[in-house]
Design brief:
The chain has 105 residues and is α+β, with helices and mostly antiparallel strands. The protein is 29% helix and 39% strand. It contains two helices and six strands. It has a six-stranded antiparallel β-sheet. A hairpin with a 2-residue loop joins strand 2 and strand 3. The two termini are 16 Å apart.
């Protein structure tokens, strides 16, 4: 990981946002979130996931969050700086900030 690396959030071939690395809090990467106008098509999915993650207190809450996050995984792909699609990731977007981790296997 290098400061300034650019990851991408995509829906198919469509660029939804750039994630410009600003630091790390292992195992999480931190980034400046730079959306394109096309991000609006999935913004609600991320807003719902963030809202649910902030209020999860029990097994029922976790199940609701997982269903919401599964909708994100169905809608978008995370692309690393080398252009490879990340197989498994957890991405949070809060305003102009993105945090994520991914499976390196």
């Amino acid at each position: 990981m290098r400061i300034g690396e650019r990851w991408q959030l995509r829906a198919g071939e469509q660029l939804l946002a750039d994630l410009v690395v600003t630091g790390a809090d292992q195992p999480w990467l931190l980034a400046r979130f730079v959306p394109t106008p096309e991000f609006e098509s999935v913004r609600g999915l991320f807003d719902e996931s963030l809202r649910l993650s902030e209020s999860v207190a029990d097994k029922v809450g976790w199940a609701a969050w997982q269903r919401a996050y599964d909708r994100i995984l169905d809608a978008v792909s995370l692309i690393d700086p080398d252009g490879w699609r990340v197989a498994s990731f957890l991405l949070h977007i809060d305003g102009g900030t993105a945090t994520w981790r991914w499976d390196m296997s």
